[in-house]
Design a protein that fits this description.
The complex is a heterodimer of chains A (about 130) and B (about 575). With about 130 residues, chain A is an alpha/beta fold. In chain A, about 35% of the residues lie in helices and about 20% in strands. Chain A has a single domain, classed as Rossmann fold (3-Layer(aba) Sandwich), CATH 3.40.50. The chains are: A alpha/beta (about 130), B alpha+beta (about 575). The interface between A and B is medium-sized, with 27 and 33 residues.
Chain lengths: ~130, ~575
């Protein structure tokens, strides 16, 4: 599964991507909206994990662009708040889940698997109690 | 003065001065003073004015009768004396010395005189040498020698003489009239009559005896000429010092030995005699003093009534003012409290959000470290990995604990437009009780739910409402910890068509007023060992956001009552 992570906090997104890779996912990340759009243009992922509150191009604008360019791309929104400001999840069918940081990693994995069932190249490891 | 009062009033009416009872007492005193002075001043001015007017009128009323009496008496006296003098003069001129100088003829003339006029005592004929050659009367005065006497000389010079009252040879008070004649043949003689003053006294009172007024005659030396009721017999000295007397009657106010006197005087024309009419004592001034006392009574009564009415009016008014101020202060305090709580809420949410990002970083890094130790191919450092993993677990657990707190803090700032639905409160409460029922049964707490059948569904957020009731019931259970016969009662009613009131009451240990004051603040917990101190904070925030209200009453060792009012249709107030 190809996962694209977007968050302006490198210290957060880099370890997250690494943890996913350790589990056999193809995980890449971008730290701002422009980089995200570049990567999307190059090769769209199976699922996009997007931080809602970023400086510059932030959640609402990016959501519009993504919806225009990739209307079927499954999205998982991350937010510092329980519910992101200005987001009505029901208006955006491609949003599969809204999660609050800090993430419960196992729950996050389950959601990713639910969004896009693993294509068999990974085996989640035992003993991960995070 | 006015400036000062205005400043004082402005200061007292300024609410920021505070709500101390002394402040309102001062305000009441000032307003009462103003009202009393504004009402009493015109009253006093009016009273003084009418007092002056009326006293003038009363004075005139008192003086007029005395003046009239003096005039009448004078006229009557003048008439009395004039008549007698004219008669004597007529006799003198109608007869010659020769024709009178016979005892029989002289007696006949005297008899004719006394038959017409009262008051003649005797009559004498005095020749040019001053010898009384003829005399008719009760005394033996024939042959008396008047030569050189002042009255005779005055009669000889002026042709007539009227004496003052004197005792003389007769030894009783009388007055003398004399007419001097110079006949054609050169014979000079004088006709002299004596008048009894008792007749004079009758003439003094033409309107009859008057109990209030004393009328008498006195001469230029203040010697009484007639008997006075008040000041002694005739020929005694008058103890009053009379003002100068003119021909015109005049009324004077005299003060004799501390007694107010009203004195009318008039000079009898052609004599040195003054007529004096005296009205004295309390009798004379009774109308005046009675008026004064009535006026003072009315004035004092009026002032007393004004003071009383002002006092009670201002008391009531200031009490109302005080109540209004206190009400306003209470509302302001409540608003400030709500404002404070909402500020705290925003602050808490902001802090929670800001902390969430670093927490996420810590969590991911710790997670990654665990992953590296567990998932990477073993590099032979297994013992180190075994000792590191529990540490990383500890970091992760701690972060998750912190995450729970921030999540709860953020919980109530969630927007809920989508989640409002019609809810049966019975069901919500029953579900909440399901969670806690076991614990309640275990502790022997009796829970009673009394919700009326007609309680309407409320349109609200199910999970949030459930959280509210879980919090409230959980708190009630905790308050009942270790208590025998613990009871929780849940009542519901429709307080008006748009509001449902739910009351949760326990008979637990209650709260101190201090605790009650801070109950809705975050991290303020009575359950130090188990609570986060966020329960009531979140409960309050949820209920406020659902458009409801929550009020807590509590008494230490008696129990706590929580009133939750919820709108039937929640108007969600967004704070996000």
């Amino acid at each position: 599964m190809d996962i694209l992570l977007v968050d302006d906090e490198l210290d957060f997104i880099e370890p997250l991507a690494q943890r996913l890779r350790l589990r056999g996912y193809k995980a890449r990340f971008a730290t701002n909206g422009e980089a995200l759009l570049d990567q999307l243009a190059k090769s769209p992922p199976d699922v996009l994990v997007l931080d809602w509150g970023m400086p510059g191009l932030s959640g609402p604008i990016l959501l519009e662009r993504i919806h225009t360019g990739w209307p079927t791309l499954p999205l998982v929104i991350l937010s510092g708040y329980n519910t992101p400001k200005g987001l009505r999840q029901e208006n955006w069918p491609q949003i599969r889940e809204v999660l609050t940081k800090p993430l419960h990693f196992n729950g996050f994995l389950e959601i990713l698997e639910g969004v896009c069932p693993s294509r068999g190249n990974t085996v989640p490891q035992q003993g991960d109690n995070a | 003065m006015f400036c000062k009062i205005r400043q004082q009033l402005a200061r007292l009416l300024d609410i920021s001065e505070g709500l101390s009872p002394a402040h309102y007492r001062a305000l009441r005193r000032l307003m009462t003073f103003l009202m009393v002075s504004v009402s009493v001043t015109p009253l006093l001015v009016l009273s003084a004015f009418s007092h002056i007017q009326y006293s003038r009128m009363v004075e005139q009323e008192l003086e007029a009768p005395l003046d009239t009496l003096a005039r009448k008496s004078r006229a009557s006296l003048e008439l009395f004396l004039g008549e007698r003098f004219s008669t004597v003069s007529f006799i003198a001129h109608a007869h010659s010395f020769a024709s009178l100088n016979h005892p029989d003829a002289f007696r006949r003339v005297f008899l004719a005189l006394t038959s017409e006029f009262h008051g003649f005592v005797d009559m004498g004929l005095v020749n040019a040498e001053g010898h009384q050659v003829d005399y008719v009367g009760p005394y033996q005065l024939k042959g008396a020698d008047y030569a050189g006497q002042p009255w005779l000389r005055e009669a000889e010079i002026k042709g007539r003489y009227i004496s003052n009252v004197f005792l003389g040879l007769r030894d009783f008070p009388h007055m003398v009239m004399a007419v001097h004649r110079l006949e054609a043949d050169g014979t000079r003689w004088t006709l002299r009559v004596t008048i009894d003053i008792s007749q004079l006294e009758k003439a003094l009172m033409p309107t009859g005896p008057d109990r209030e007024t004393d009328v008498f005659l006195c001469d230029g030396n203040n010697i009484l000429q007639t008997n006075s009721r008040l000041y002694g017999k005739a020929l005694e000295k008058l103890p009053l010092s009379l003002p100068p007397v003119g021909l015109e009657p005049a009324v004077h106010h005299l003060n004799a030995d501390g007694q107010q006197l009203l004195v009318g005087t008039a000079l009898l024309s052609g004599t040195d005699l003054r007529l004096v009419a005296v009205k004295s004592g309390p009798e004379a001034l009774r109308p005046w003093t009675s008026l004064q006392s009535e006026l003072i009574l009315v004035l004092c009564g009026g002032i007393v009534i004004i003071v009383l009415v002002s006092h009670f009016l201002m008391k009531a008014l200031v009490a109302r003012l005080q109540a209004a101020d206190e009400h306003r202060a209470a509302i302001t305090a409540q608003m400030e409290h709500q404002h404070k709580l909402s500020s705290i809420g925003r602050l808490a949410a902001g802090v929670a959000h800001e902390i969430n990002n670093p927490l996420a970083v810590i969590l991911e890094k710790a997670g990654l470290a665990q992953d590296i130790l567990r998932l990477s191919p073993s590099n032979g450092n297994q013992p180190q990995a075994d000792s590191l993993l529990p540490l990383l677990d500890g970091i992760e657990r701690t972060v998750l604990r912190a995450r729970n707190i921030t999540r709860r803090l953020l919980g109530f700032s969630r927007r809920m437009e989508a989640s409002c639905q019609p809810l049966r409160l019975e069901q919500i409460i029953a579900e909440s009780l399901d969670f806690l029922g076991n614990e309640a049964a275990h502790r022997g707490v009796e829970i009673t739910v009394r919700l009326p059948e007609n309680l309407p569904d409320v349109v609200s957020d199910q999970s949030q409402l459930q959280q509210v009731f879980l919090n409230l019931l959980g708190n009630a259970l905790d308050a009942l910890e270790g208590q025998q016969a613990g009871r929780i009662e849940i009542d519901g009613k429709l307080s008006d068509t748009e509001t449902v009131l739910i009351t949760v009451r326990d008979n637990g240990k209650g709260m101190s007023p201090e605790m009650l004051r801070h109950i809705f603040e975050p991290f303020y917990s009575s359950k130090r060992e188990k609570g986060t101190g966020l329960g009531m904070f979140i409960t309050y925030a949820i209920i406020r956001r659902l458009g409801g209200d929550i009020v807590v009453h509590s008494q230490q060792d008696a129990g706590t009552t929580v009133h939750v009012s919820l709108p039937v249709h929640a108007q969600v107030i967004s704070e996000a």
